[in-house]
Specification:
The complex is a heterodimer of chains A (227) and B (80). With 227 residues, chain A is of the alpha/beta class. Chain A contains five helices and eleven strands. In chain A, the strands form two sheets. A nine-stranded mixed beta sheet of chain A has the order 2-1-3-4-11-10-9-6-7, sandwiched between helices. A two-stranded antiparallel ribbon of chain A has the order 5-8. In chain A, strand 3, helix 2 and strand 4 form a beta-alpha-beta unit. Chain B has two helices and three strands. Chain B is elongated and about 45 Å long. Classes of the chains: A alpha/beta (227), B alpha+beta (80).
């Protein structure tokens, strides 16, 4: 299975994502933001980081970079596109997934492990996963998911909420919401479920001794799903 | 021609920075404030002599990049 990770100026989780994808059997290529065309891919990943120094709004400049037209076309033709952290911010700025990511509610950069609950397994990312609650890592300043009332109704009606912040038992409550996101939303799909944006970093949870292995489960399952 | 654009957060969008600034001002003795909202200001020098054309260009910029219309409003405030 072929994957591509896009590197923008200021991306800093691109290498980690490359390591994670290769560890679980993807043939990964790094793609520069200024390239015109994506290489042939089964999965495209927009990695975390601080593209363009978070100027204007996080992800806004990267969403207009040259390679993104090719990524948007890929997504619109049904290709799998996953945006993690800054990648999620880039996705909302392209309009591929609804909503925006605002500054964290308490104005703090948050860097810690969180639990997330899967809401919807009818998609290539989570299908067949034998766990509903995963422990991932978050590290962000602008992860406070916001959308309009109409958008919220639409994403609920279309089952577009991918994951919620919760506790280790899967309870989705305000006290387990790290950043003020509407309804504890940590990740969102597009209508067709081929585009996934999420704040947590699965690529940081792929080593038993350093972190946890919920990221390993995620990547192994993802590879099997798209084989 | 210089055209300015002011980007402000929509009413129902939480502005934690504005809140903190409000609190700081309050602490400094500025007691008669009911709310502070933080926004962005752009001054753009457009190579165009016709004011309405220059404004139209900046309006297009606001819609496509400078503002995110899910959470922000924009206003073209002056031309010189």
């Amino acid at each position: 299975m072929k994957s591509s990770v896009i590197t923008f100026p200021g991306s800093n989780c691109d290498r980690d994502m490359d390591v994670a994808l290769k560890k679980f059997g993807f043939k990964n290529k790094m793609v520069w933001h200024d390239d015109n065309e994506l290489p042939k891919s089964d999965l495209v990943v927009l990695p975390g980081g601080f593209s363009y120094g978070d100027y204007l709004r996080c992800g806004s400049m990267a969403s207009k970079s040259k390679i993104m037209q090719s990524v948007i076309n890929f997504a619109k033709s049904g290709g799998l596109v996953m945006g993690i952290c800054n990648g999620f911010q880039i996705l909302v700025e392209t309009g591929l997934v609804p909503g925006v990511l605002l500054r964290n509610k308490y104005l703090e950069f948050i860097c810690k492990n969180v639990f997330v609950k899967l809401d919807n397994k009818e998609n290539a990312y989570f299908k067949n996963l034998n766990k509903d609650i995963l422990e991932f890592h978050i590290a962000h300043n602008e992860g406070n998911y916001f959308c309009t009332k109409d958008q919220l109704k639409e994403i609920k009606d279309n089952n577009q909420i991918a994951i919620y912040y919760c506790n280790s038992e899967g309870k989705i409550e305000d006290q387990y919401n790290p950043n003020g996101s509407i309804k504890n939303i940590a990740g969102i799909f597009n209508k067709e479920k081929n585009v996934l944006g999420m704040m947590p970093h699965p690529e940081r949870m792929i080593d038993e001794s350093l972190s946890g292995e919920d990221g390993s489960l995620f990547f192994k399952n993802l590879l099997n799903n798209i084989k | 021609m210089k055209v300015s654009a002011v980007i402000t957060l929509k009413k129902d969008v939480l502005d934690p920075q504005g809140k903190v600034i409000h609190q700081a001002l309050d602490g400094m003795g500025f007691k008669n404030i009911s709310e502070v909202r933080q926004g962005k200001y752009f001054e753009i020098d457009v190579n165009e002599n016709d004011p309405s054309k220059a404004k139209a260009v900046v309006e297009d910029m606001c819609k496509k990049l400078l503002a995110n219309l899910v959470i922000e409003n924009f206003k073209i405030i002056e031309t010189q």
